[in-house]
Sequence to fold (292 residues):
Amino acid sequence: MGKKERRLEQSVKKTNKDHKDFAAKMGKQKPLHKEANLPKRIDKAYAEDNGFIAGKNSVWEALQSERTVNKVFLVADGDKLFSAKVLDLCREKNIPWQTIEKDALERMAGPYHQGIAASCTPFVYTELDEMITCAKQKKEDPFLLLLAGVEDPHNLGSIIRSAECVGVDGIIIPKRRSVSVNQTVLRVSAGAASYVPVARVNNLAQTIAYLQKEGIWVMAAHMQAPADMWHSNLKGPICLLMGGEGQGVPELLQKKCDQLVNIPQWGKISSLNVANATAILLYEIARQRRML
Fold:
């Protein structure tokens, strides 16, 4: 057995001991841990915005990123191998952790926790000018994404995940009529939100003008656009503008863009889900940028 395997085995044994100690302790106490003394009914808004992130991928990526994790909570009878990896990282970074009952974890972080959650500092948004400056400092041309009113947290989380996979430098969302980066968004993004900067702006029309002033070409997706994505030049400094669910890109914003493109479709359904449409266009931009 190698050194790495022995270390993992020792960590698993320690985790098992911690779980047994916790179970014995819980047998003498009330089932709800005093630090998790929350209302018995799960309030959806509270569960999504109380500073917790939940799920294996979300917590693991948060632990490895620059985000500040205050404390990690693990279900006592959860995945022991994964728990061992998490506890190794917690000890390495000197992050407090605690085993807790499943019901208590649900009250803190919602029902989709996969046996683990973490208390973190609130999500920190990036300033738009800082995002553009950082993007210009890279070897490639800036690659940004502007979302005009995505209101479903599952869509935003999925979009952030796709954006991270293709190397988007940053995502811009409006402060009003848009979902914020809440716990659901973080969970659906599977940790990608720890790596993709997100900026919030007051006025999308002014933002488009600012991007163009900075030399960034703004392209919007529109079903009736004269050109499709395959016959459009999507290279260079670019910002893809996507509309919200149902309404698409507002006409006022369409007129301010440098180009409109469509996604070819041959089926009977007239439109794609915004998260799917965004992923398709992001990958076409990435393909052209890298000449694949």
Residues 57 and 190 are 5 Å apart (CA to CA). The chain is about 40% helix and 15% strand. The mean pLDDT is 80. The longest strand covers residues 69-75.
